[in-house]
Amino acid sequence: MSTLIQGISQTGQSRFLTRFRSNPFAIPSVLMILVFVVIAVGTALLSSFGHQWPCDPNLTNLEQKLLPPSSLHWLGTDNLGRDVLSRMLHGAYISLTVGVVAVSVSLGIGVLVGAVSGYFGGMTDQILMRTVDALLCFPTFFLILTVVAILGPSLLNIVIIIGLVSWTGTARLVRAEFLTLRETEYVKGARVLGQKSWKIIMHHILPNAAAPILVTAILGIPDAILSEAGLSFLGFGVQPPQATWGNIIADGKTYLLYAWWLNLFPGLAILIASLSFYLAGDALREAAEGRD
């Protein structure tokens, strides 16, 4: 957040924060994101110390299969008698991990390509942008699905693949920002003083492009979450018994008519998490652009 505020300091930090808070969805969406983060981190920490709450997500009990929500199992049980709440909590960790790490990979590649293309221009720009255009011709999800089918489904493969195929939009955005910022007076002055290109990029241009880059990163997280959920639903994502929101829905699709909780609760989790990131990113964008 501090980098974002520095990047838009010309509009005034107080104005930015005022505009952000004035958005009716800003604070609720940020709070909801924090809730998911606390759940994911808390679940991971408890698991690392050998504790499972409310119980082991992979513990099966066929005598208690497909039980509806109750005081014993708050979100019911699945077709193997596993506690859905426990699996949902572990699924939150998987989904947020995929979202954050995949976006980090995507952001790193996109910023690098966009910065080099926008700053140096010429033939370098032509080669890089034509590569981006070629990649944009392929539907992203089907490209991810194809690569996962070839390399095999695993959490590491999914994170890397989503990151490697999702950087093109970031690259085009960063290029556009650099094309504008490289013509500013302070950048021209830095060139006259003989500063190296990488120093100009890192110290003069990139901080001023921080706002749209951060917004792009936040908006990319729900896309990654949805991609992972879709892959898991189709059986190409994180493999059972490890729980994700997508494979919980996949397990419950057979029992949709009489075990509604298996699809409703993970579906709501995906919806709320994705919507929270979208609304937070949109509020940041409007605040940075000076729109009320």
Walk me through what this model shows.
By secondary structure, the protein is mostly helical. It has one domain (2-55, 74-288): MetI-like fold (Orthogonal Bundle), CATH 1.10.3720. It has 13 helices and no strands.
* Rg: 22 Å
How much of the sequence lies in strands comes to under 5%
Structural class: mainly alpha
Helix-strand pattern, N to C? HHHHHHHHHHHHH
* CATH domain fold name: MetI-like fold
**How is the main sheet built?**
none
Task: Count the E strands.
Answer: 0
List the topology elements.
Layout: H1 2-7, H2 13-22, H3 26-48, H4 84-120, H5 122-136, H6 140-151, H7 155-165, H8 168-181, H9 185-192, H10 197-205, H11 210-234, H12 245-252, H13 261-288
Helix pairs in contact: 2-13, 3-4, 3-13, 4-5, 4-7, 4-8, 4-11, 6-7, 9-10, 11-12, 11-13, 12-13
Q: Care to give the gist of this entry?
A:
By secondary structure, the chain is mostly helical. Helices cover 71% and strands 0% of the residues.
List keywords for this structure.
13 helices, single chain, 292 residues, MetI-like fold
